Amino acid sequence: MGHVHPVLPVMHNLQARGHIVALATSQLYQERIEREGLSFYPLGPHYSEERLEEFFPLIRYLRIHYLRVSYDFLRIFMASIPARIPELRQITQVFRPSVVVAGPLTFAAQLFCEQQALPWAVLSPMTHFMSPSLHAPPAGFPRVETVPAALRLPYRLGLTGALCTATALMAPWRCALNRYRRQLGLPPHADPLSPQVVAPYLLIHTCSREYDYNRSDLPPQVHYVGPSVWDRPSDWQVPSWLANIPPNTPLVYVTLGTVFNTRLSVFRKIIRALGQLDVFGLVVTGPGCPPDIFSAVPSNVRIEAYIPQTALQAEPRTRPALIVSHGGVNTVLTALSDGIPLLCIPLGADQPDNAQRCVDAGAGLRLDRRLLTTARLKRAIHTMLTQDSFSRRAERMQHTLRQHNGPEEAATLILRLAETRAPVCQPPPS
Fold first, then answer.
1. Which of 141, 272, 305, 367 has the fewest CB within 10 Å, making it most exposed?
2. How far apart are CA 178 and CA 314, in angstroms?
3. pTM metric for this prediction
4. Which residues contact 372 (CB under 8 A, 6 or more apart)?
5. What is the domain class of 7-130+170-226+404-420 according to CATH?
6. Structural contact between residues 72 and 63, judged by C-beta atoms closer than 8 angstroms
7. Cα dihedral 277, 283, 289, 291 sign
């Protein structure tokens, strides 16, 4: 759902303008999508990211980050290409789209559109982790500018080495993608994962240029539109107990998202740390993690299965003073777009990159899950609640994100691509 959520406001915007839209993805999401009043086409394989271990049991043993990401790329995102191409062909024969909007990792859709000469856009809720550079280092590395001046030269040299290593580690992904390209009669590329190949017409990035380090090394068809935020169904009701949150007590909202939320030890350490502070802690466990699994919960902590982040941010009385998170991109951008600082505990995927961006912006802190203790959590939460600099820096990032209207700007770019069937490029700098 972390990839589906940013798409929904864009689809609603296009629909409100009188256009016909449909979403194709795993059938396990069908009920949720149709509840939003959107057309749906099942596209296999029918697994759910929230229940990934049920479909790919091996991933529970892949604790080294690179091995897990490689498995995701090779066995999940790329291995599904041969089965998805015929299904996409059947869907487009019925729906006949003027333009396709794909996710950054839906390689089957990208290759199918290239094969059929059908213009496509990529809507990316993630940062450009597939094209690291000194402008935007590999996931989790600080930027050169944030390192103390005396250490910048050796750090730059080390970062150059890390970039070479990252390029080498991505070689199996490039080789696999080129193999599928050849099978479809498409020419191989030296870097088939680059923005120029993945999104030659249009790459829509749902953040601000400032969040993405003001990069100047990306092709002109990359556009920043700001966050596209959706985190609740239309029929969700605000619970009455929210009115009973103690006044003048900092509210700390805790979420580990919908995929990494089964890390019970992380939740337990956070709950214990909150119980030792003068705060009201609201811990949201997400799907597959029932709240009653936690015993001996402190009196100042409430545990719920689902409370939308935006529902709290909409009211000054319930606005969180701090969000403790795994660093999922939707959680991060939703918080920053409202000027709320984050304490990030990356657990996988692109989370180290998102967490580091919060740190580099001065809007957050990052804790290593392998060194996580209740004492460290308590100290970090206390620091962030007592130092105004985190809120000020988060508000500065909020200003850059609020300059955009993500769904509206994304929809406008998609329609321009549908009309012109040519790359939608930024105007050259004056």
1. 305
2. 46
3. 0.91
4. 266, 269, 345
5. alpha beta
6. no
7. positive
What Å distances lie between residue 187 and 150, 179, 181, 384, CA to CA? 47, 10, 6, 51
pLDDT digits (tens, 9 = 90+) for 285-306: 988 888 889 988 999 999 999 8
What CA–CA distances, in Å, run from 220 to 193, 201, 202, 210, 217?
Answer: 17, 10, 9, 16, 9
d(CA 185, CA 19): 33
Q: Which residue in 23, 207, 17 sits closest to 101, CA to CA?
A: 23
Using the CB atoms, write b or e for 9-27: b if 16+ within 10 Å. Answer: bbbbbbbeeeeebebbbbe
Cα–Cα distance measured from residue 150 to residue 66, given in angstroms and rounded to the nearest whole number: 31
For the chain, where do the domains classified as CATH 3.40.50.2000 start and end?
7-130+170-226+404-420, 240-402
Residue-wise pLDDT tens digits, 342-388:
999 998 878 888 999 999 999 999 999 889 999 999 999 999 999 99
The token duo for 104 is 């950054």
Rounded distance between C-alpha atoms, residue 407 and residue 12, angstroms: 8
DSSP conformation letters of 195-223: HHHH-SSEEEESS-TTTTTT--SS-TTEE
- The superfamily CATH assigns to domain 240-402 is Glycogen Phosphorylase B; (3.40.50.2000)
* DSSP H or E run through 302: strand 301-304
Q: Give the Cα-Cα-Cα angle 121, 125, 127 (nearest 5 degrees).
A: 100
- Give, as one character, the DSSP assignment of residue 293: G
Tens digits of residue pLDDT in 253-276: 999 988 878 888 999 999 999 999
- Amino acid sitting at position 354: N
